[in-house]
Amino acid sequence: MLVQSALSSLFARANEVGVAGTFQFVFSGQQHFWVRAPACTQVHAGMHSQADVTIAMDTSVFLAIMQGQSDIEALFAQGQLKIDGRLGLATLLPRLVSRALHGGDGERVEMDRRYPARPRFSEQLSARLDMRGGIERRTARQLSVHEFTTRYRAAGKPLVLSSALDDWPLAKMSMGQALEHFADVQGISRHGHYADHAFSSEREFKATRVVDFVAGMEEASGPTGDEPAVYMGNNQVPQQWLQLIRFPELFERAQYIAPRFWLGPKGTLTPLHRDDSDNLFAQVWGEKSMLLAAPHHREALGSWATSPDGGLEGCDFNPDKPNWEDFPTARNVEFLPVRLRPGDLLFLPEGWFHQVTSLSTSLSINFWTRSVRVPAETCVG
């Protein structure tokens, strides 16, 4: 009964989170339960013949998650939580857990619906920035935290810092050496035309061990046809790697959320979008190209949000295949190219649109923060 009660709590507010599908849970001791959300969140005993996704774990692991004592993504990475079926739907589980544990008063979210993109204060800031010289590049050791805070962070101005990972043990390792620290860590990779289904649960995902992904990545020659290369993107950095990286000192440590890693061969692609918080993006191996556009170009780029409260926003305009007829004002958008090399750290302020392409086999680690600018801040351009 304890497990059933916890499952009921998990799905009680599924309609608010935008989760829709049939979830099958397989616990230790031959305990099987399924829930169909959001139409009926009643917990049923047994196995469902047509479940969208099946999640298997030890009973104690699940109860620890529901008591806020364990992180669901970390458990997945360590293999203590197995997922089969529609992984795109399973990627919404952390959102479900967060709502069950912490509540929330936001508007109801519908899965995979596009919402109007709302204006942000970052748009006011970027509209008065002079970016005619492109994205500035500085050497990390020559920039103080005070100068970063007043000149770049407060102004919402992007910046590339070179030689920023000199104290990272991971940056000094070969891929083979680094993989020894992964052991049996598993991650979620993107396949097929994932760029055409950006930020949707309909994307094709697979769960695989990182070492197996790398082995397959090295055998592959790159993108097939018009499909981008397979990408292990936006996975939580495993515990084994935390001692091999350094949190940038540009923000207070408490402001960082768990860092994420992005691993793939040449040709991986993340289409044009923008996030809802500041981002420090570290390039560990290989090179990536980014195309940036300032926040105030929201309407010109056909921006849309994944939730009514805003948050992550995609774009209907594709700078690689511009549709000037549908987006005539996109001609006025100044796209700013950035090339990230090993050791570079990009400060990408909240609200800046960016498209990311791997130019070679690449590993990146990014640090999102609990920090955005507000109108009361003083900005130095």
From TrEMBL:
Lineage: Bacteria, Pseudomonadati, Pseudomonadota, Gammaproteobacteria, Pseudomonadales
UniProt xrefs under InterPro entries: Cupin_8, JmjC_dom, SCP2_sterol-bd_dom, SCP2_sterol-bd_dom_sf
Annotated Pfam families: Cupin_8, SCP2
PROSITE patterns with a match to the protein in the record: JMJC (PS51184)
Residue span, JmjC domain: 236-381
SMART domains: JmjC
Organism: Pseudomonas soli
Source species, domain of life: Bacteria
Name of the protein this chain belongs to: SCP-2 sterol transfer family protein
